[in-house]
Amino acid sequence: MEYALFYAAGADALPYVAADDNIGEWVDDVVARGIAEFGMRLRPDVDATTVRVRKGELLVSDGPFTESKESVGGFDIIDARDLDEAIEVASRHPVAAFGRVEVRPFRHWSDAEPGGRIVPAGLHERAAEARQYVLFVIADPDGERLDDGADPAAWVSEMDGRGVRLFGEALRGPEDATFVRRRDGEVLVADGPFAEAKEWLAGFDLLEVRDLAEAIEVASKHPMARGGTLELRPIWPFDPHEDHAARDEREAAEFGVRLEPHAADVVGAIAGART
Fold it and tell me: Residue 273 region, left (φ>0) first, then alpha (ψ -120 to 50), else beta?
């Protein structure tokens, strides 16, 4: 059964200690066990771009969809026997020792192909051909009510045809989320969603596009841009076997500084190109 593991600091986060980071060992283990499908680190939430459509107007802003401390910093997709194995795997991830790991099962559709995978085989070995963004699909009670013609399958078909969507799937609801933390050698497990907010993560897609402008255009066409919120997060590549202290020191200056173009500038350029 496939699960998504989402990594975040959490409300009770401890300081990150690079010397204690064993991510390389964790990756080697899940690969050796044959349960690893795909994983990515994400740029800090200052590089997020939020996309909504309200009353036909495209609304794009810098930053994540929520101001909580629960911004996702990365994810893995694993194929575990059951929830118990997924929790065991999550508990040994280095983030569990200072932050938290949220385990979320994917939705299973009655018409799904038997034995089908969410992540295409071999995708983790494929070199990126353009800029990659994770598109988080956020359910928002304040979003517009979607009509019967708002079919996500049509969006999926279009984006697959354009070659900008590498994979994606809906998640089961927040009531099926499981928190996993490790404190003082003890594994702490709790049920519930990852943020105390009215919005919740309903699914995600991995996009490969020319630039942020195309990512915004792709997101704006998703039905949930009207019925909820879309958050674009650029991928932040890293080598899990690199010296973590050296990486932490090298990247320290990038936290808190937006490296993505500002949303207003991108939308302005798009509007100018259309006139």
Answer: alpha
